[in-house]
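2024-03-11 09:14:02 DEBUG pipeline.ingest accepted 1 chain
2024-03-11 09:14:02 DEBUG pipeline.ingest length=261
2024-03-11 09:14:03 DEBUG pipeline.predict start
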Amino acid sequence: MSDTADNNDQNKAGNTNGSDNANNANNPDNADNLSDQDIAKALKGFEEDFKDLEGFGADGPQGLKDSSAGVGENSGVGETGESVPPDDLSAFDDPLEAELEGILGDKAKAAMLITPLQQPELLSAFCVLADVSAYCIGAEQGAVAVLKNLAGSSPEAAAKDLTTVISGLSVVLAVNRADKLEAKLWMNGEQGSDFAPPILFMNVAEFVEDFMIGSTDLDGLKANGLTVVDSGAMSRGEALKVIAAHTKFRPGADGGTGIVE
């Protein structure tokens, strides 16, 4: 009888530990302990969920028709004497040199990734995983990532990296080079359709156009009450916690897939 009671106690203890482990696995505070395999599972189901997000699919924002008309043209951008939005919250170290690079097109004046996500924290977490440096801003029409690295083809590299790491996530990369605006769709690390900037601006948050043409900057957006999340201020562990908080696991043959909540 004594041996039977001891075995029952051990079984109960084992069941309790199993329950605790399951709770710990689903607890966002324990996201620091997630392995790369766990994160891969969490991201695996995003592709189908991104397809279901209303208003933003593989063709970009809702109502946005692909068009090469107007791409690369001066689409309402002011004269080169206008203020240039900095790629940092502080002023450029050398404003004259930065302005010259912007005029010549060696360095974009502004670049941003427009996404179907609404939460800037989640977009910032994705940027951390993809090693994309950006200020992420939430909007009902879709959160955007204002890119910090504007030199050369860095904006295109950021779009490629983000859509490669987060499979199924489509973004529109908007770039202002030498007062010429371009907008291109990116998905799964590949560049897609071109969009005429005026059509793009009709389907995204109003501040997107203001920022891209240089009529406002990050400080102005913050002053207007917009939430700005710096991916550079978020560690990988913090990013995993944010993703875990926005993700739940479905049971499946492969141990579960992640879906956006």
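2024-03-11 09:14:41 DEBUG pipeline.report The first strand starts at residue 56 and ends at 57.
2024-03-11 09:14:41 DEBUG pipeline.predict end
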